[in-house]
Design a protein that fits this description.
Keywords: Hydrolase, Oxidoreductase
CATH superfamily of the largest domain: Aldehyde Dehydrogenase, Chain A, domain 1
Number of helices: 23
Structural class: alpha/beta
GO molecular function: hydrolase activity; oxidoreductase activity, acting on the aldehyde or oxo group of donors, NAD or NADP as acceptor
Mean pLDDT: 90
Organism: Flavobacterium dankookense
InterPro entries: Ald_DH/histidinol_DH, Ald_DH_C, Ald_DH_N, Aldehyde_DH_dom, HotDog_dom_sf, MaoC-like_dom, PaaN-DH
Pfam families: Aldedh, MaoC_dehydratas
Strand content: 15-25%
Largest sheet: 7 strands, mixed
Number of domains: 4
Radius of gyration: 33 Å
């Protein structure tokens, strides 16, 4: 019998004993059974804390982010295989898109957050805090990765998204994960984990999979662990009260199913775009994932006078929903996850129908396309509760499927009260074109909801909808919804880190945080800081400039150039009663003059001015005052480079402007783009090329590939003849949509991958040789290179075609030559 496997302690394994069976939600066919019997849970948790945790904690945020981005790209290329498996859960293509590509989207989104963290393994939070009058005792907060393991207990409805939206956060934080998917859809989670492990992108131990419910997993948890749970509120409360959680004070984040409410604004009457939006959104929330979403609309709160209109319009809209085999294009709603879930759903609907009336759908009859009663199909059900303040079952009982209830309100206060009777939800929405109504609802209802969507005609086409949690927004809610938070951008990552307040001197805290703290000791340097590459710049590096005296003419000229004729700069007869005593220099002149003092004029690693973060003018500077500048590296921030520029990072410089009495008169933080060192490639000078080729003989053997030495020389010769313009009768082979990306790759410091082939080269077969022997080929190589050098010497502005990289100027050709020769010279071990 097939068993869903586990990936634990570095290997795939099957548990012993009988397990819980999983069935195809569409056909009823057996898929696999899940069992956790025999797994050594304490050893699994210890393995994650040590094997995976140690490696992740040492990585910087940039390294973690790029790792997660690479994983997202890897999985995206293999997504179609997951769709085929996902159909077996009863999900349509659209349903599966939310789960599969929504999950990958979480990886991409969290990977991009690396730009908001420092280039180190821990985070510095907030602003520094001065704790003394003298400025020599201060504090800052840092966040470090917890030294435990993140235990994720997930629900059945999103076997991929549920795993990745959590793991993306803990991996970014530097924490490993143990994932426990719900048994009924664990086979889909397993398929994704298999690809993740096969990719070798994550450090071993960063992800372990226990396919099923390990009831004893909490028995050996430790204080550094973090637990997240997604599922029913009842189960969550039981888990949250486990003695070990209380004893070890283990963080427990619960995201529970909730009775989410959507409100139709009083202005959204039939015939308005908002009324139609409400109906369309309601239909979608009932039918997408067959209503098996923790964020689905369970309660529709509509104006009393519009109850019949909503019932009629929504019923008519639901009539258009085709139910059946999710593989069929015409099907808009698939099956529930299992027959057991159908039975549970029917029981809940029967509870609701004791007071509410079923006005659409039939629990015992469903029109099915392409399938039969063996599948877990059920009709959409719409109930009507006309007395929602008296009959409270609708606010307490959730039917987890394609079920929703409409109920009336007389005024907005009643709508707010009804929404709050759900005792806390993940999300609410209000559909209205009135900003006044929207504000009133949001401000008064926000205490009971984790997220509120205001939907109207302006944002409808771009809105992600009521039921779509987003990686950069908090996902969670108060009360019944669990009281926890997931995702939320940087907030989500911080759940897996320990916040610690650090106290000490500014100089010490500069070293600890990696951010220059005001009043810290300066690090004197031997050359101008703009002469250092990004890697060599350190926080605290500082330069004191020469003095400059600000003249009356400077101020007048600046006013004329900028057209800034503020009276303090241009009309000294109007200074009475102002804070100014004499003609005053413009604040931005002081900043510009400061730049004139600290900017290094020669070309160097500083590539560009990147911006200004903060600026404060602390006291006026008058004509004939003299100032100097102290320029200090405040912080370094890594950055991605995808355009035609060399790898670089951002350096934040703390600019302090002093007068001759050493009184601080202005401060600013400026940003510069600073190039990184190129230490990957050897420069291909004439001398270096001769040196390398002197090592190449007719009998030299490559480390990879099938090229012979003569084939190598003839290949390189052809490259030079293309770059010199002698060969141009070809079409560019790289597709237009990726040509810029391929061209820009010349500027990075990544080597050509082993096995890279020129478009015209034969696959696994050598080209016919052109020259009679090796020595002739060598002479022709040097001849072609001289021709290339001469061409660009005589035509420095020329632009020529390259079959792979598109249009190439002189500098791009130089970059290609360097990469190309390094690649092949390494291939033949002559570099």
């Amino acid at each position: 019998m097939n068993k869903t496997q586990h990936y634990v302690q570095g290997k795939w394994t099957s548990a012993i004993g009988e397990g819980k069976p999983s069935f195809d939600a569409v056909t009823g066919e057996f898929i696999a059974e899940t069992s956790v019997e025999g797994l050594d849970i304490p050893a699994i948790l210890h393995y994650g804390r040590t094997k995976g945790g140690e490696k992740l904690r040492k990585m910087t945020f940039q390294e973690r982010g790029n790792m997660i981005k690479s994983l997202a790209m890897y999985l995206t290329k293999r997504k179609e295989a997951f769709y085929e498996i996902s159909y077996r859960t009863g999900a349509t293509r659209v349903d599966s898109w939310i789960d599969i590509e929504g999950g990958f989207g979480n990886l991409y989104a969290n990977a991009s957050l690396r730009k908001l963290f420092p280039n180190q393994s821990y985070h510095v939070e907030g602003d520094p805090i001065n704790l003394s009058k003298g400025g020599r005792f201060m504090a800052h907060h840092i966040l470090v990765p917890k030294k435990g393991v993140a235990i994720h207990i997930n629900a059945f409805n999103f076997p991929i998204w549920g795993m990745l939206e959590k793991c993306a956060c803990n991996w970014m934080a530097g924490m490993p994960a143990v994932v426990l998917p719900a048994p009924v859809t664990a086979y889909l989670t397993e398929a994704v984990v298999r690809e993740i492990i096969a990719s070798n992108i994550l450090p071993e131990g960063a992800l372990q999979l226990i396919s099923g419910t390990a009831k004893d997993i909490f028995d050996t948890i430790e204080s550094q662990d973090v637990i997240t749970f997604t599922g029913s509120a009842t189960t969550g409360r039981v888990l949250k009260s486990h003695p070990r959680i209380l004893q070890e004070s283990v963080p427990f984040t619960m995201e529970a199913d909730s009775l989410n409410a959507s409100i139709l604004g009083e202005d959204a009457v039939p015939g308005t775009p908002e009324f139609d939006l409400f109906i369309n959104q309601a239909r979608s929330e009932i039918t997408v994932k067959a209503g098996q979403k923790c964020t689905a609309i369970r309660r529709m709160i509509v104006p009393e006078k519009l109850m019949d209109d909503v019932q009629f319009a929504l019923s008519k809209s639901l009539d258009k929903v085709a139910i059946g085999d999710p593989r069929l294009k015409e099907v808009r709603m698939g099956a529930l996850v299992s027959k057991d879930q159908v039975d549970v759903l029917k029981g809940r609907v029967q509870e609701l129908s004791k007071s509410a009336k079923i006005v659409y759908g039939d629990l015992e009859k469903t029109n099915i396309i392409g399938a039969d009663e063996k599948g877990a199909f059920v009709s959409p059900i719409l109930l009507r509760e006309d007395n929602p303040f008296t009959n409270i079952a609708v606010h307490e009982t959730e039917a987890f499927g394609p079920v929703s209830t409409i109920m009336p309100y007389k005024n907005l206060d009643e709508a707010i009260e009804l929404a709050q009777m759900g005792k806390g939800s993940l999300v609410s929405s209000i559909v209205t074109n009135s900003d006044e109504i929207a504000k009133e609802y949001v401000v008064n209802a926000a205490s009971h909801h984790g997220r509120i969507l205001v939907l109207n005609r302006e944002n409808a086409k771009q809105s992600t909808g009521h039921g779509s949690p987003l990686p950069l927004l908090v996902h969670g809610g108060p009360g019944r919804a669990g009281g926890g938070e997931e995702m939320g951008g940087v907030r989500g990552i911080k759940h897996y880190m320990q916040r610690c307040a650090i106290q000490g001197s500014p100089t010490t805290l500069t070293e600890i945080t990696g951010i220059y703290q005001a009043n810290s000791a300066y690090k004197e340097i031997t050359q101008h800081p703009f002469q250092y590459h990004w890697e060599d710049i350190q926080p605290g590096m500082s330069l004191r400039t020469h003095n400059r005296t600000v003249t009356d003419t400077d101020i007048i000229n600046f006013a004329n150039i900028t057209w800034d004729h503020f009276y303090a700069h241009t009309d000294i007869t109007s200074l009475d009663g102002s804070i100014f005593k004499k003609r005053t220099a413009h604040g931005y002149f002081i900043l510009a003059a400061a730049a004139g003092l600290f900017v290094y004029p020669n070309k160097g690693p500083v590539a560009a001015n990147y911006g200004l973060e903060e600026c404060r003018f602390l006291r006026p500077i008058y004509h004939n005052d003299t100032v100097y500048v102290r320029l200090t590296c405040k912080q370094k921030v890594d950055r991605d480079v995808a355009s035609a520029e060399h790898p670089s990072g951002i350096v934040k410089w703390f600019v302090e402007v002093f007068d001759t009495e050493n009184e601080l008169v202005a401060v600013a933080t400026i940003l510069t783009m600073v190039q990184k060192k190129q230490e990957v490639f050897v420069e291909m000078t004439d001398e270096k090329i001769v040196e390398c080729l002197n090592k190449l003989t007719e009998n030299s053997k490559p480390s990879w590939g099938i090229l012979t030495p003569q084939h190598l020389l003839e290949h390189l010769e052809q490259g030079y003849r293309i770059m010199s313009g002698e060969i141009q009768d070809f079409e560019i082979a790289t597709p237009e949509k990726i040509l810029d990306k391929v061209h820009n790759s010349l500027y990075n410091y990544d080597k050509f991958p082993i096995g890279t082939k020129f478009p015209t080269m034969k696959k696994d077969e050598l080209e016919d040789l052109i020259h009679p022997d090796f020595e002739t080929a060598k002479a022709k190589f040097f001849e072609a290179r001289e021709q290339y050098k001469t061409f660009f010497k005589e035509n420095p502005e020329a632009v020529l075609k390259n079959m792979v990289f598109g249009e190439m100027n002189k500098y791009a050709s130089y970059l290609l030559e360097r990469k190309h020769l390094n690649h092949h010279f390494e291939q033949f071990n002559i570099l």
